[in-house]
Amino acid sequence: MKLIRYIGKNTAAKLINSKAGTFLLVFLAISWSYDRPYLALIQEQNQPITWCIFPFFLASVRFVALYFAGIIYTNSDVPFMQHNNMYQVIRTGRRRWALGQIGGIFLRCLALTVLSALLSVLPFFGRLEPVNVWGRVAYTIASGRSDASGFVSQSMAEFRFHYDALTTFTPLELLALTLLLCTLISTFLGLLMFLLSLYAGKAIAVAVSLGYVLLVYLVQNTSSDLRQAVSYFVPPYWAEIALYRTLDYGYYRLPPISYMLIFLLTAIAVMTLLICLRVKRVEFHWEHEDA
């Protein structure tokens, strides 16, 4: 029970800070920019739009790289050696302190993922389809009908609806799967940074994690017949779950969903164990930097 309360306090501290605030403000600005062409379209056609927008933001390798770079930025307070943490270690002990930080990383990633999904539809407030169906606008754009797709193309839309996603998932299924995967991928990156920072320092942890995220461009530029095989080792690329059933020259681009979940959960468990083992022996160097 004490550990749960401690994780809750850590989560609040990790969310109510300038880095998380900056991430959300930047995401809101991007949402307004991405949604603007569709706002004009639904106003012109006087039709509501689906509330499941976030997965289609992520169906772009450029947005995926930008999004997870922001996640790395918000987690760049690793290895949590700010001076105020010194008293927490004294009160709780090293193992409980490490578990509290790990739990805080997970809950911060969950909160940022959910808030991002909400911000992606904020510009459409009052014009959303309040049911678990895709609706006319999404189907019209995804099917390539000229009255909508031509308008979006001329408006330089940054994202589009994908027909295979609409026929494979309901809005609730796709959004739930996207939230789950993004939370686990973000937690994976956060724990990778925490682990590396305990062994090699913060600068190395941030550089390696950012380089790992940029591997999404390597996957994207791999030939279609090899892309799925390469993607097995690059979890950030899996955020493009809206393209799960979209063929590229006859080939799928993502691993099975079961593999993604097992890989992420196993990696998170292993890194949690390694962090707890390392924390028992590492020498803490406290700093006065704000969290």
Question: Please, could you describe this protein's structure?
Answer:
The protein has 14 helices and 2 strands; from the N terminus they run H-H-E-H-H-H-H-E-H-H-H-H-H-H-H-H. A two-stranded parallel sheet has the order 1-2. The model has no long low-confidence stretch (mean pLDDT 86). By secondary structure, it is mainly α. Helix 5 (83-92) crosses helix 6 and helix 6 runs antiparallel to helix 10 (171-200).
Highlighted features:
single chain; 291 residues; mainly alpha; two-stranded parallel ribbon; 69% helix; globular
Main sheet attributes: strand count, strand direction, barrel closure: 2 strands, parallel
Count of extended strands: 2
- Helicity range: 55-70%
What percent strand? under 5%
Q: What is the N-to-C succession of helices and strands?
A: HHEHHHHEHHHHHHHH
Keywords: Membrane, Transmembrane, Transmembrane helix
Protein name: ABC-2 family transporter protein
Transmembrane segments: 12-34, 54-76, 97-125, 174-196, 203-220, 257-277
Quick description:
By secondary structure, this protein is mainly α. Helix content is 69%, strand content 1%.
